[in-house]
Design brief:
With about 300 residues, the chain is α+β, with helices and mostly antiparallel strands. It has 2 domains: about 100 residues, Cytochrome c-like domain (Cytochrome Bc1 Complex, Chain D, domain 2), CATH 1.10.760; about 160 residues, no CATH class. The chain is about 15% helix and about 35% strand.
Length: about 300
């Protein structure tokens, strides 16, 4: 039996969306009154243009009148704006920048705008990315314990597994994922373990892994399918239990499906193909995970 603990240290491009006090200033609130606010563009121009510019790419600092945070968003940049869920954008407009740990320069608009108006504004922000083919943030499903995600990411991931039966072992893996372009990702993994035997504890690095992921298709906010190929290099000391001693190629498909805004399914299936089948046999694997995302504090709460 193994107990698995996964710790995630991730680099996100969350939209530090609009930025400032806890509430809009009097002039900002006044700008939304007495105006026709039927479309997302009209709402954006009334409430948001002062900081975010006429097309969502941001105002020059000479017009802003304050030093913008380093993560000030550019909604026309598809690489950043497509990564996040619309619900995250909505939460920041509802509750302000502090709702997602961003600058308090972004105020809460829940007293000045209705929920319907905020939904229209987020839809307009989504439209600022005019390039097709970018997978949307709703397809960035939670990372399950035993299935790879189909969504391409920029992140560091640390996983740790503790063996609770048989030889005492603490096995960890540090993974670095780097996205490039619309649908591509490079992945590097470095496993390291600590084993206890009759002579005491030993530690060492296992077999290093390099991989490439490509999104084959993404369908709106519902489905995503990716293929990945990777090679495991026998850099570990097999005699001490820190590697396989054989170069192994692995190829798999990863699929993610949203059934609703909060329920999802992930599937990973593929082959492990060692270069020396006398030492290690070929293998086929199939893994699946399903889950439900809970938002206890309502639509603007943490998931």
């Amino acid at each position: 039996m193994k107990f698995a603990l996964r710790l995630f240290a991730c680099v996100f491009f969350l939209p530090s969306i609009l930025f400032a006090q806890t509430q809009p200033t009097a002039s900002q609130q006044a700008s939304t009154k007495g105006m026709k606010l039927d479309t997302g563009e009209e709402i954006f121009k009334a409430a948001c243009i002062g900081c975010h510019g006429p097309n969502g790419s941001g105002q020059p600092q000479t017009i802003l009148g304050f030093q913008p945070p380093a993560t000030f968003p550019d909604f026309t940049d598809c690489n950043g704006s497509t990564r996040e869920r619309t619900s995250d954008w909505s939460a920041i407009i509802h509750e302000g920048g502090s709702a997602r740990g961003f600058s308090q320069i972004m105020p809460s608009w829940k007293e000045a705008l209705t929920t319907e108006q905020i939904d229209k504004a987020t839809a307009f922000l989504r439209s600022r990315c005019e390039e097709s083919g970018w997978p949307l943030g709703e397809l960035n499903l939670p990372r399950a314990l035993f299935t790879e995600k189909a969504f391409p990411e920029d992140e560091w991931v640390l996983t740790t597994t503790v063996n609770t039966s048989g030889p005492t072992e603490v096995a960890s893996e540090l993974i670095y994922e780097k996205r490039f372009g619309k649908r591509n990702q490079l992945e590097f993994a470095a496993p390291f373990s600590f084993l206890q035997d009759s002579e005491g504890w030993n530690g060492g690095i296992g077999d290093l892994v390099m991989g490439y992921k490509r999104v084959l298709f993404s369908l709106g906010t519902s489905s995503i399918l990716s293929a990945q190929g990777e090679v495991s290099i026998p850099t570990g000391n097999k005699t001490k239990g820190f590697g396989s001693g054989v170069t192994t190629f692995e190829t798999f498909a990863a699929f993610g499906q949203n059934f609703s805004p909060s329920t999802f399914l992930q599937i990973q299936t593929g082959f492990e193909l060692p270069t020396d089948t006398e030492k290690i046999s070929n293998a086929y694997f199939f893994r699946a995970a399903t889950g439900k995302i809970l938002t206890p504090a309502g639509r603007a709460g943490r998931m």
